[in-house]
Amino acid sequence: MQEIGVGIIGFGTVGAGTYEVLTENSAIIQSRVGVPVRVKKIADLDLETDRGVQVNPEILTTEAMEVIQDPEIHVVVELIGGVTQAKEYILAAMENGKHVVTANKALLAEHGKEIYTKASRCGVEIGFEASVAGGIPILQTLRSGLCANRIKTLMGILNGTSNYILTKMSKEGLPYSRVVQEAVEQGYAEDPPTLDVDGTDAAHKLAVLISLIYGKAVSFKDIYREGIQEITPDDVQFARELGYCIKLLAVCRDLNGQVEARVHPALVPMDHILANVNDVFNAIYVEGDFVGPNLYYGLGAGRRPTGSAVAADIMALARRIASGTKAATPPLGHVSPSDGEVPLLPMDDLVCEYYFRFSALDKPGVLSRIAGVLGEHDISIAWVIQKGREINGSVPVVMMTHEARESNVRKAVSLLDSLEELSGKTMVIRVEK
Predict the structure, then answer these.
(1) Which one of 3.40.50.2000, 2.40.170.20, 3.30.70.260, 3.20.20.140 gives the CATH number of domain 350-431?
(2) Tens digit of pLDDT for each residue in 46-69?
(3) What does the alpha-carbon distance between residue 144 and residue 130 come to, in Å, rounded to a whole number?
(4) Which of 14, 41, 185, 214 fits 7 for a cystine, CB–CB 3.0-4.6 Å?
(5) Does the structure show a pLDDT above 90 at 392?
């Protein structure tokens, strides 16, 4: 084979980054693949905007099907995002015998089972390294480097926007709304950054990771998710006094038959390695039964890091094509996954420690009333912080619990929120050790 032809559908930030790395590093790519890897066509509805790279106008088109049906193109790269048109293009490419590379975590998290099945039936491969954590090669690590291990725990900071916001709130004591505004102005966040701050983006990525770990597609709709919108500077300060910081965590934990799958703000001990992951950086902590703890850290988004991940998938496919390998690697890396669905633990059955912040009237008996309700629901108090200063007529009371069951916590908080002695909604944050 003389060269590997690549077609790109979607020429936005990641598309331009992919083209840039494939052309700028073409010599080293050819050295590692064995033949040239060349972009034959690029499809995008907007052909006028300057992407910061020089492109031969002859390879540009507004028709995605020109890419999919071109006989000289071996790998189709989908980078338009969304879950409707993108899925149609990917399925059409597979039907045309093309291997596919995508960075579309939402599509894989919502329609992964259909796409993985289609790839297997068509005898083609799909690469999606760029769908999770940008330039961090976490999917290749799980598929290859740690493939002999049972993954006991995976815990990650998977959304750079939320991590930037929480870092800024921690370092400067600014309120959430102020930091979000600054993040939008500086280009770190969309306007509004809903999918980032409400946990959806991280849940999409966690669904992809869990699917790869267990060899079976998991829908992000089955993953509990909660955002950072209610976190206040007071919570950040109290957490620090208790020896913790607050991070938006994605957690997968194997519990001997059931799998925890959740995304939410969590108190992380200051001496935990994830506590020092700040600003827009991502990190994934993985613990295997033989390899033990590993940490993967880097930029989770951006033109060049994500383009690098897309190019790595293209190169892996190019090697197979160039060598004439016919058998396709299973999309999720498991030739014979176990039967049935991944058994996700119901959120109500979660057991962990909790942080509570109450807004209480400053009068006798309030603490004992709170403690009584918690005790009635088998929730034991480990620490109490009560500040004398008033906030809107109430004083903040912070409690840390010993391990408790999520269902009991929800029942207790519902009852506490109805007490006359408390104002506003109780803040609940899980503690992850």
Answers:
(1) 3.30.70.260
(2) 999 999 999 999 999 999 999 999
(3) 16
(4) 41
(5) no
Pairwise CA distance, residues 16 & 42, whole Å: 10
pLDDT, average across residues 15-38 = 97
Q: Parse the chain into domains and list their residue ranges.
A: 4-134+303-323, 138-299, 350-431
CA 4/CA 318 separation, integer angstroms:
6
Q: CB neighbours of 278 closer than 8 A, spacing ≥ 6?
A: 163, 167
Into which CATH architecture does domain 4-134+303-323 fall?
Answer: 3-Layer(aba) Sandwich (3.40)
Res 327 pLDDT > 80: no
Amino acid at 18: T
Percent composition of the chain: helix, strand, coil (DSSP 3-state, to 5) = 40, 25, 35
Q: What is the pLDDT of residue 388?
A: 64
Pick from 277, 276, 247, 252: nearest CA to 355: 247
Catalytic site residue from 41, 205, 216, 247:
205
User: Which CB contacts under 8 angstroms, 24+ apart, belong to 57-64?
Assistant: 64/9, 64/89
pLDDT in tens, 194-234: 999 999 999 999 999 999 999 999 999 999 999 999 999 99
Q: Are 367 and 397 in contact (CB under 8 A)?
A: yes
Strands of 132-243 (E only): list them. 151-157, 224-225
pLDDT digits over 417-433, tens only?
A: 999 999 889 999 999 98
Three-class SS string for 43-83?
A: ECCCCCCCCCCCCCHHHEECCHHHHHHCCCCCEEEECCCCC
Q: What residues have CB less than 8 Å from 72, skipping those under 6 apart?
A: 5, 40
The answer to whether residue 1 scores a pLDDT higher than 80 is: no
Catalytic status, residue 326: no
In the predicted model, what is the mean pLDDT of residues 243-265?
Answer: 96
| CA–CA separation, 273 and 365 (whole Å) | 40
